[in-house]
Amino acid sequence: MKPWDNGKLQVSKNQKYLRNGNQPFFWLGDTAWLLFQQCSLEQAYLYLKNRRDLGYNVIQSVFYHPIQDQEYCRPESRIDNPDYWKHCDEIIRMAEELGLYMGLLPCWGDIVKNKTINEDNAEKYCTFLAGRCQERKNIIWLVGGDVRGSDAPETFRTEGRTFKKLTPDNLVGFHPFGRTSSSLWFHEEEWLDFNMFQSGHRRYDQSSLGAWDDNAVKEGYFGEDNWRYVDRDHSYSVMKPTVDGEPSYEWILQGLHDTSQPYWREWDVRRYAYWAVFQGAMGHTYGENAVMQFYDGSIPGSFGVRDMWWDALHHVGAGHMKHLKDLMEAVDYQSGRPAEELLVSGQKEKYERVSVFAGKDYLFAYDYLGKGFTISLENFKGRKVSAFWFDPASGIYSYFDDMTGKEQAEVKPVARFTEDNDWVLVLKAE
C-alpha cells in the first residue's frame, strides 16, 4: 500500500506532525539533489528502489541546479528542453510506483539569487511545473534551495503561493540556508505548511570560519545541537511541523571546505536524527555526500567526495535511519512529547546530552556516549514496565530488566568498544 492510499498528506491536528488521512506519516527523507541532472532512468530506478527498500519515503531533489564550475545547469536540463522534462516526468512516475514522495525544488537558490528565476517569471515557471505534476499523487513542493529567504523574499513567496493555489492538496515547504530555518522568514505565510531547517555540516567549534557561508548573529547558531532548531520552530504561537531537511551528511567534510578536516560518519548522522526526532520533529532527512551530488567522475566533486555514488549508496548510515522510523511507528508517537524533566540525573551539554521522548505507554532515551543516566518512572506507576536497550545501528531490542514498581532507575548500556557507543533506553508499560 502506498501512503497516499490512506488519504492526502496533511498536517495533524496537534500541528506537530504529518498524516495520510488518519495514518501517521513519519517523514524519512534522503537528499538526491542532482538526481534529474546526473542519472539515466536505469540509474534513477536503482537509486529509488534502494532508498524505498531502506525505508525512505521522501526524496528531496531539484529540477534546475547550477552544477559546480558552470554558470547554469547542463543544456539538457534547461527549462525549455522537452526531452529533459520527459526525463523528469518518468523519474517522478517511478517514485510514485515505488510509493515514494518527491520533495521537489523548482530550482536551487543560486538560480534565484542570480535572478534567472525572478519575480517576473517565477509564477510562469511554477505554473508550468504544477501543470506537469498535477496528475501525480507523490508531490511535496519545496521552494528555496540552500538559500536565505531574505535573498529574494518576493520570488519565494510567489513560488509558494503559486503552488498552493494550483495544487492545494500538495504540501509546501522551504529549504533554507545552512544553520537557519524557514520559520525565520515565512512562518506566518499561509502557503507554508511546515518548517524545514538545515542544521548543516559544522562542528561546535566551527561557528565562525571566516567563510562566505558564516551566519549572521540574528540567525542564531546552535552548533551541532540540531534539537534547538526544533525548539525554536515550536516556540511560535501558531504551531507548524518541522524537520531537519539537511543535517551533516555521511562522509562529508566537517565544515565542508577544508580537506584537512575529518568526515562526518554514521554515528554522527544517527545522533542528529535521534536528537531532532526525540525533540518533536516530524521526521528526519538523511544525506550522503556522493549520493546527494550523484558523483560519477563526470563533473568536479564537492566537499571532499571520495566514492562513486553507486558505491556510496550502501554506506551503513543510510540503513540505520529505518530503525528510528520503525521505533517511532511502533508507538503512538504523535501523542508523545519531549520529556527531559524525567531525566533525574540532570541534563548535560553537547555530546553528553540524553534526549528523552515519552508517551502514555512508553519512554525512549537516547544516550549518544553510552555513559548512563537515571530516569524517572513516575509516569508508569501501577503498571508492569519492561526495559530494553535498543541498538540504533542494528534495530535490535535487548531486554534487560523488569522495572515494575520502581520510582526511578539508574541505567548504563554495555560498551561496544568501538568508535560509537550510542544506545536508546526503551521502556514499555502494560
Describe this structure in words.
- The protein is an alpha/beta fold and 430 residues long.
- It has two domains: 332 residues, Glycosidases (TIM Barrel, Alpha-Beta Barrel), CATH 3.20.20.80; 93 residues, Immunoglobulin-like (Sandwich), CATH 2.60.40.
- It is 26% helix and 21% strand.
- The chain contains twelve helices and 20 strands.
- The chain has a six-stranded parallel beta sheet.
- β14 and β15 form a beta hairpin.
- α5 runs parallel beside α6 and α9 packs parallel to α12.
- The chain is globular and about 70 Å long.
- The two termini are 30 Å apart.
- About 2% of the residues have low confidence.
